[in-house]
Amino acid sequence: MPQTRISIQTRGQGLYEFTAEAEAFVRRNRRDEGLLTVFVRHTSCSLLIQENADPDVRRDLDAFFHRLVPPSDDPSMRWIVHTMEGPDDMPAHIKAALNQVSIGIPVSEGRLTLGTWQGLYLFEHRDRPHLREIVLHLGG
């Protein structure tokens, strides 16, 4: 079964689209039908399928998750014990636990079956830049 890894350089918290890379991988492997499994190899970021037309959606998601899980130096987060790696680290792990680290997308007629406005995103939960690795696996 075809498999590859892609790297995404993040610049801090936010959504980073990689739909084009996933589509290119499927095209290169000329599979009419199958299942693309997408897996991120980290514990402080996650994966999302989300709207890719209006950038306000990404901004609103960022704002929502920041309000839901603020940095550990926020007074509401005094209960957090794991603070050694900075005030964004444990909240990043919580955000990743609330989202997915693996997504399956059906392939039909040689294409991902994403909807018209759907894109595939790495959701970075850390403040500083990171190099993130994603595994793409195409099963038959």
From TrEMBL:
Gene3D superfamilies, per the entry: YjbQ-like (2.60.120.460)
Residue spans crossing the bilayer: none
InterPro entries linked to this entry: UPF0047_YjbQ-like (IPR001602), YjbQ-like_sf (IPR035917)
Family affiliation: Belongs to the UPF0047 family.
The protein's name: YjbQ family protein
UniProt source species: Mycoplana rhizolycopersici
